[in-house]
Design brief:
The chain is α+β, with helices and mostly antiparallel strands. It is built from three helices and six strands; from the N terminus they run αβαβαββββ. It is globular, with a radius of gyration of 13 Å.
Length: 108
């Protein structure tokens, strides 16, 4: 994000909590990095790009899968989301923690 904005990136389940202002503490970011995050999205989706930018800005380690270019990733995405079609999807330890970014998403 630009101008120092810190939007929330996900509802963090067992790992930590999101503050009322949408920020995530440095401790929670460290915990998120320890468990590993996966992002399923597509390069054509602006909300995927915004989520990736936010994660990079926060220094959170993640693995990105483009479901338009990677058939195996698309199959995992469909299974994880139970045939969902909205991206981006944030997955933590094999569990979907958020779909979309800031309430917005693209369809695949």
């Amino acid at each position: 994000m630009r101008n120092g904005d810190k939007p929330d990136i996900a509802q963090v389940d067992d790992v930590g909590s999101v503050a009322s202002d949408g920020s995530i503490s440095e401790t929670d970011i460290s915990k998120m990095e320890a468990v590993g995050l996966e992002v399923y999205g597509a390069n054509h989706c602006r909300y995927t790009a915004e989520l990736l930018e936010d994660l990079e800005w926060r220094g959170v380690a993640f693995t990105y899968y483009d479901v338009d270019k990677d058939a195996d990733a698309k199959a995992r995405f469909i299974k994880l989301t139970e045939n969902g079609r909205s991206i981006p999807v944030l997955v933590e330890n094999g569990k979907v923690t958020s779909v979309g970014y800031q309430g917005r998403s693209c369809l695949v």
